[in-house]
Amino acid sequence: MKLAIAQLNPIIGDLTGNAEQILDAAKTAVNQGVRLLLTPELSLCGYPPRDLLLNPSFVVAMAIQVRQLAQKLPPQVALLLGTVTLNPTAHAAGGKSLFNSIALLDRGEIQQIFHKRLLPTYDVFDEYRYFEPGLQSNAFTLDGVRIGVTICEDLWNDEEFWGKRNYQVNPIADLAQQGVDIIVNLSASPYSTGKQQVREAMLRHSAQRYRQTILYANQVGGNDDLIFDGSSIAFNQSGEIVARACAFDTDLAIVEFDEQKRDLLPGTITTSAKSIDEEIWLALVLGVRDYSRKCRLQQVVIGLSGGIDSALVAAIATAALGKENVLGVLMPSPYSSDHSVTDAQDLAKNLGIKTEVIPIGDLMQTYDQTLEPLFTGTQFGLAEENIQARIRGNLLMAIANKFGYLLLSTGNKSEMAVGYCTLYGDMNGGLAVIADLPKTQVYSLCRWLNSVTPEEMSLKDQDQPIANHQGEIIPTHILEKPPSAELKPGQVDQDSLPSYEILDDILHRLIHKHQSAEQIIKAGHQTNVVEKIIQLVTKAEFKRRQAPPGLKITDRAFGSGWRMPIASIRRQEAVGIRQ
């Protein structure tokens, strides 16, 4: 029996378009002799649908689409379709009204419905808000082969692998006890750095522990702040990889089940990214491309400061959308260094993107004159510095509004963490591209970018997305000069912050490892520095709450999975640097 994984990139809520994608995949699979086609979790509506699920008409429309898709499918192929179904006993039993389900479609009919058993409620997941957990083990027989069905979180509860059990049941163990021939897992598992290695180790462990063949189908694509990497995979009973789909792209991965050996035969195994930098690059390019495409915005505008952050965002946007769809705007002030302009122009030349130069000196004078009666007798400080950022933010938003562009903000995670950013200024935008990249990772990614060949830079449907790439994309001077907001003469970031190596290590321990001040200090950091950084992180919460969505690439990102209070006891003690 041939099985295929349709690694799909759905648009949230586009039931008709997503159904067409699924049907196209089924037709392709039939031509290759496939009997069973797997699709990702909630493949019909896309994951995560969030509060669209609270709309009863949306749920009804899904049910109609499932029936129609069953009738349109080629009769030779059976389909496991991710969808939502009603819980008929919700009101009587006091449960949620919906199930996260998989529908088995075959020969024009809905043959069976299976429900997700383990519902995650952590990080970006909030499934108990919508769904009732399924109570039964899920399996069916197709052409004499017994197939067990799990949905995403159902496979993330092996107490032997994790050293603990987060749920009372282990759906993989239950199916193995039933003696199924194949276990399939239909997932929508968001990307974070290094996560695929964890997935593969976990799946390998389960395959070996239970002597089970396992097929894992994952969604691909960017949906708001979340990026799904695909990387669907199949393991034989020995825990060996027999097939792997592309990362960060749609794919159709085909494997064959040998009914005599009761095991999977070797298939096509695509190679993984060669480094974390390459993995992050592919993720961010996909995130920008899909956010723009799914929001129906074809062109972007970026403020080019001559700094490393805006340089990286411009390179990502160029690779994602093409040079003709990226506009860089230079907005020098009297405090801008000459190299800020020339570095930005050199970058734009390397990328082949259009630029506009809008000096802001006269606008700064107008603001000063307007505010002079009120500000008389006060010292020049943060308010005056930040006017520059807000002028630039207003100009960029005006351009975006006028021409229908998407404004990409360029702040990194280190800045977002400590509030080294200006509300209604450099935080303006529709998407924060590198908001989950620490500053040290920004440098690492830019150095990697300069080291790869044009062939390695090529992405699907774009032979050479970086137009003038001949070795150096990010100008060397941008990489070497001290980072600066240039809001006053001679300013550099380290006037207000420790070195980014120190800052990023403290932030990683605080944000990702949840370490206390005492633990961070014991790791070798100065007490006064640690206390200051913790205060800054706490105080900046109100800024992060107003930031544009940022593409998530780590296991602890600011955004939908970050739920910190703005008003807290530490907030009252905090002293900041930029408002």
Radius of gyration: 26 Å
Structural class, judged by helices and strands?
alpha/beta
Largest sheet: 7 strands, mixed
Report the count of strand segments: 20
Q: Which secondary structure elements does this structure contain, and how are they paired or packed?
A:
Layout (H helix, E strand, L loop, with lengths): L1 E6 L7 H17 L4 E3 L17 H17 L5 E9 L3 H4 L4 E9 L2 E7 L23 E4 L2 E7 L7 H4 L8 H8 L3 E6 L7 H16 L2 E6 L1 E4 L2 E4 L3 E3 L5 E4 L6 E8 L4 E3 L10 H19 L5 E4 L4 H14 L4 E5 L7 H14 L2 E4 L3 H15 L6 H22 L2 E4 L3 H6 L12 E2 L6 H13 L2 H4 L18 H5 L19 H13 L4 H6 L4 H13 L1 H5 L23 H5 L6
Parallel strand pairs: 1-2, 2-3, 7-8, 8-9, 16-17, 16-19, 17-18, 19-20
Antiparallel strand pairs: 1-14, 3-4, 4-5, 6-7, 9-12, 10-11, 12-13, 14-15
